[in-house]
Write a structure and sequence with these properties.
alpha+beta; four-stranded antiparallel β-sheet
Amino acid sequence: MTQPANEHQHSALRLASSGLPALPLRKGKVPFGNCSDCARNACGGRPNMKTPGPCTCPAPCHGWAAATVDVNVLTSPAWAAAWREAQAIAYHPAGAGLTVVDLDDIDAIRWAHENLPATRTVPTTRGEHWVYQGAIQSANAVRPGVDIKSTMAYARWLGAGSGAMTALPDVVRALTVKEPTTAMTASQAIGMPARSVDGECRHRTPAYLERGIAMAEQRITDAAGGVHNAVYVTFLAVLSTHGRCGCLTEDHIARLFTAAQTKGESPRHCTDAWANARTRLGL
């Protein structure tokens, strides 16, 4: 094992020694982009993001899936460049059997104090992380200002916090479960356009759509500034070309969202940008 390159790597090694899978975050406090073998979906569909588990790539790759407790990986030459650029570190809560209730503002914190059992709390820039023992499916925007970070998600490491950690309560589990009468598919939740009546894509060939999605991913990735606007304009362009014939699938939209989040956009902003683009086009 080599000596830690900087304080972020040193902190990641401390987390790993305590059983918390860690990963570096780059500028913007987001994971590093995929390695060259996986860039632009070359690996065949981001396989490591489909189920919980460590990424098998040599460098930090596939977001949360890069988190590891393996000291040899954290100190490997393949990760050296990432540690030199790292601005912060994160961890995979479910990898340590934990769930983080991410409270974004004072109203969310007030709700937590009124409805959730006390547990370990960690101050954040805008709110608090409430950390519980037990892992569940992650979910964003389960209520105003509240995200659940656990399985297949990462939480920024901001310190050990204070207070005794308690068991994950049913009220938090219930936040990630939709009632059958109001449950939405992923496509409905993000507003995926309905398929045209004849069920046939007017572009005739899947290759045209694939090129369009790949170009959109690259446009977001190459944005030098104004990420919010770049994401919105790109979503608008994709929907204006492909939104009315119904050829877009959930995987296409997931690719666009992944590119945006890798660039620093939050899941909530991605959803808002997509909805605003649909509204602009009358979809």
